[in-house]
Design a protein that fits this description.
Largest sheet: 4 strands, antiparallel
Order of helices and strands: HEEHEEEEHEH
Strand order of the largest sheet: 3-6-1-7
CATH superfamily of one domain: Ribosomal protein L16/L10
CATH topology of one domain: Aldehyde Oxidoreductase, domain 3
Radius of gyration: 17 Å
Strand content: 25-35%
Number of helices: 4
Length: 144
């Protein structure tokens, strides 16, 4: 699973859930830059590191030895959790896992070196492992 080697702050504060900011589309990482095909997020969600790894595994198994995969998101945000049956109070819980806050428009994965039908099938399988809605895009579709 993906997680940072070193972090400046072990525990982060929880962000506010402003509806305007949640629905705002992402401005960075919105074009297919490395591969020929990409998986673009259409909804907002928090993607955990184990979900990214599960999607990466299913893509690599579908592609076989041909093709190359790029993961365009990295889970660097820690999420804390208090242990089971611990009373309230006594501070914040320990870091439990890492996640990435995905906004609509972000490219999650990119693929190159395979036919379009194989790439489409790999991305379809990867979407089933992720907690958000996505769409398959070509390199030409995302260029401005």
């Amino acid at each position: 699973m993906l997680f940072p080697k070193k972090v400046k702050h072990r525990k982060w504060q929880v962000m506010r859930k402003s509806p305007e900011k949640l629905l705002a589309a992402d401005t960075r990482g919105v074009t297919v830059s490395f591969g020929s095909y990409g998986l673009k997020a259409t909804t907002q969600s928090r993607v955990r590191s184990n979900q990214i790894e599960a999607a990466r595994r299913v893509i690599s198994r579908t592609l076989g030895k041909t093709g190359k995969i790029w993961i365009r998101i990295f889970p660097d945000r820690p999420v804390t959790k208090k242990a089971a049956e611990v009373p309230m109070g006594k501070g914040k819980g320990d870091p439990d896992y890492f996640m990435f806050e995905v906004k609509p428009g972000r490219i999650l994965f990119e693929i190159d070196g395979v036919p379009e039908d194989v790439a489409r099938e790999a991305m379809r399988k990867a979407t089933a492992k992720l907690p958000l809605k996505t769409k398959f895009v070509n390199r030409e579709d995302t260029r401005v």
